[in-house]
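hey
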């Protein structure tokens, strides 16, 4: 199993390009199931989760060809097996995103129920209830969601909580339903908007994406389209944190500050100089960061996917900060590993009190989930001596060529096989 060896203490400087967003790419790949005409996707990130999703839709009959320019053409004419097996769903929870499109296109779907995961129970009851409101017959049997509907019918759905993939699944199901669907309490995340834009370019009639109320007028069929995946705001935020903590000065290309207001605001509060340009962001770090408190909430508030990275930067900042996680019930697994590097963190339920220490010391630590791994990389970049991060397959799910990008920025990082 690969490990990442980091020699800390090198300030990041220079430029790197941000990849397409994982969390936009995954639902967009599933959107290809909705049409018999080809979907051409560009700016797809090269990530293990994307490869897993391609394998999954490939098993269903989607033909994938390269466009010769790092994009892909997905041909779903031959979709004939509307099944997502436990083996696929257990490797990647986002596999649940095939449920809505399969049901809408094929009239049936058999999708394994995802189990719990490292950061919380993560049920999918809202996906199921929303599809039932649209007339689907759904049973859960032997660990599988078995769904049927000759044609889904538009409905008014109010989700119990804001759910990102829940909103995406229901929006994809609604585009081929009969009549109008309104999704209230919808997620406003930019990735939902990117998916909606892709669907609109395929002929869907959607308004309100990016607000809490999404309206979809169902159409008979969708056509082919070309769509460029939006930049990854979490990858962007992660590199900004890495530069902030190492007293760096970096410029990130092919990204936008527009998706990152809450994160940029906190970096400025920590003392960083962050500037936006057309398609790029620069960050210049202070000599020592100030600790900043955060509370995770649905977009546009502070994202849970940046919580671990901010915990890492607070570990060496001046003063104390409280980190409150409100989205997932068990998302502090990185704290115990950061403590192994010498951090001062006290956890009380979903609050973490982090008091900055003058320095961290390198050690062997273990990655437990994707963003937890990113926080350990950030800590390793500033720790004195060597940090060895184990189980970095989590990182490879969501960060494209991370060691290469960090090396380009002047970090001393090596993948050990
Ligand atoms: C997505 C993102 C993930 C991010 C998360 C929150 C993708 C592929 N993943 O995950 O990176 O951390 O949003 O921004 O886009 N919930 C239920 N029932 C449901 C659905 C959700 O109780 O049917 C709960 C979850 O357990 C969680 C909260 O709602 O506590 C939000 O989860 P949700 O927004 O659905 O997260 P994901 O879409 O799985």
């Amino acid at each position: 199993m690969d490990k990442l060896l980091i020699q800390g203490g090198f300030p990041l400087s220079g430029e790197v390009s941000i990849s397409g967003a994982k969390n936009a790419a995954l639902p967009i790949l599933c959107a290809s199931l909705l049409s018999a005409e080809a979907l051409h996707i560009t700016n797809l990130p090269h990530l293990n989760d994307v490869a897993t999703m391609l394998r999954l839709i490939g098993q269903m009959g989607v033909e994938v060809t390269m466009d010769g320019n790092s994009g892909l053409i997905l041909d779903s004419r031959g979709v004939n097996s509307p099944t997502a097996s436990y083996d696929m769903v257990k490797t990647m929870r986002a596999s649940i995103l095939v449920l809505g499109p399969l049901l809408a296109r094929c009239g049936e779907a058999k999708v394994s129920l995802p189990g719990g995961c490292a950061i919380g129970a993560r049920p999918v009851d809202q996906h199921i209830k929303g599809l039932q409101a649209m007339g689907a017959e759904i049973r859960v049997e032997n660990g599988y969601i078995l769904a049927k509907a000759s044609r889904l019918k538009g409905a008014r759905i109010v989700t119990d909580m804001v759910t990102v993939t829940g909103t995406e699944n229901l929006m994809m199901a609604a585009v081929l339903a009969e009549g109008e669907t309104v999704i209230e309490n919808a997620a406003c995340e930019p990735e939902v908007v990117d998916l909606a834009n892709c669907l609109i370019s395929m002929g869907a009639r959607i308004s309100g994406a990016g607000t809490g109320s999404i309206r979809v007028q169902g159409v008979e069929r969708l056509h082919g389209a070309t769509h460029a995946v939006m930049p990854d705001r979490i990858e962007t935020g992660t590199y900004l944190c890495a530069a902030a903590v190492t007293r760096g000065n970096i410029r990130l290309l092919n990204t936008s500050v527009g998706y990152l207001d809450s994160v940029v605001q906190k970096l400025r509060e920590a003392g960083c100089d962050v500037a936006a340009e057309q398609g790029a962001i620069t960050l210049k770090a202070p000599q020592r960061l100030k600790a900043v408190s955060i509370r995770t909430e649905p977009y546009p508030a502070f994202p849970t996917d940046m919580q671990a990275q901010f915990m890492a930067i607070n570990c060496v900042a001046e003063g104390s900060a409280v980190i409150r996680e409100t989205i997932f019930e068990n998302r502090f697994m990185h704290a115990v590993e950061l403590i192994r590097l010498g951090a001062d963190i006290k956890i009380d339920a979903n609050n973490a009190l982090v008091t900055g220490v003058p320095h961290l010391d390198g050690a062997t630590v273990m990655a437990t989930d994707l963003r937890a791994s990113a926080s350990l990389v950030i800590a390793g970049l500033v720790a004195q001596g060597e940090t060895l991060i184990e189980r970095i397959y989590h990182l490879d799910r969501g960060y494209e060529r991370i060691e290469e990008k960090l090396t380009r920025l002047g970090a001393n990082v090596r993948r050990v096989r």
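The radius of gyration is 21 Å. The chain has a mean pLDDT of 96.
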